[in-house]
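The authors assume throughout that readers already know how a fold can be written as discrete tokens. Each protein is reduced to its one-letter sequence and a matching series of backbone shape codes. I therefore recommend that a typical entry be quoted early in the introduction. For illustration, here is how one protein appears when written out as sequence plus structure tokens:
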Amino acid sequence: MNKNIKQFISLIVIILVVVIGFIVLSKNQNMVVVQEGNTDKKPYEIVLGKYQDSDCGMIIDDIEYASQVIAADGKTWFFHDHGGMANWLLTKPFKNETVIWVMAKDTKEYINGKQAWYSRTDITPMAYGFGAYKVKQDGFVDFETMLLLVGRGEDLRNPYIKAKLLADKK
């Protein structure tokens, strides 16, 4: 066997080992990214460390800023930052036909995300700054405004917006 064929076979074997390794690791972790069959459109209880954010891919290890988006067919996606949920949702053609649940900071329960009020200066996992609340307070925005602000990049990830919002807070 010539040297080029041996190198090619070695490369194929290495690639197969890596692919099989990824498959085995992903099956062992049993991470939940999307759940099907949620025809009741109710929020799932997120098991910390077992659910993965559908926008950024990070593991959900705290539900303080958790969101769930449920499509008409019952598919449910999970998020650990409301801004990330909004960022993800903006690209979906079915965004207007969804049920959205967000963890409310003031009541510590899931509430309708489209009826929630959003702060703009919370310290959130992905630094968007949107905390969800059941009761409106000064400076809070509604769901549609939050979507618009995320789409424009007008959140705490933007240094200019961050400086302005935090200066206004003083």
